[in-house]
Amino acid sequence: MAGLNTFSVGSGSSSNSKGGILPSLIRECGNVAVVRTVKRGPNVGMKFHGCPLWPDTKCEFFRWILPDSNAVDNLQVHVLEANTTIAEMEYEKKLLEEKIRKLQIKKENLEEDAHEMKNELCEMRIELMKSSRNERNCTMALYLSWVIFALVVFWLK
């Protein structure tokens, strides 16, 4: 990708034949217009310039790209389309990286929770073994007290 002029949402680098940014494609909102294609309706397939942040912005810039025979204009449209695709892919990549980061944090938190639960389980098992031992000792003490009571009652009679 070295040597490629990349385009990101909010800034741009579309050039005219003289090497500068097309002034008509820089919007009042400060963004460089991108090329979009109509996907539904009577104008399906037609291309137009629009704000790269649409529909999440109040910028309502819209301009049809009319088919003509000018090769330079056609190449500019192709460059803008490629830059638009790159910008969209970079934005999607950024969203996916953020999602991965959040999932990694969630995974780490779940691993910590699992480790804490294992420790609590071990502690509960130890307590259960202690209570089982205590129950056995109490049962033995109860039987022994009954035997002693029976002996005392037998001896007193």
Describe the protein in words.
The longest helix is centred in the last third of the chain and has 86 residues, at 71-156. The chain has one domain (23-156). It has a three-stranded antiparallel β-sheet with strand order 1-2-3. The chain is rod-shaped, with a radius of gyration of 38 Å. With 157 residues, the chain is mainly alpha-helical. It has one helix spanning 71-156; strands at 34-37, 47-50, 62-64.
Describe, in short, the structure shown.
The chain has 157 residues and is mostly helical. The protein has one helix spanning 71-156, and strands at residues 34-37, 47-50, 62-64. It has one domain (23-156).
- Count up the helices: 1
Within the largest sheet, what's the order of strands? 1-2-3
Structural class comes to mainly alpha
How confident is the prediction overall: mean pLDDT?
78
Number of strands: 3
User: How would you spell out the order of helices and strands?
Assistant: EEEH
Poorly predicted segments? 1-22
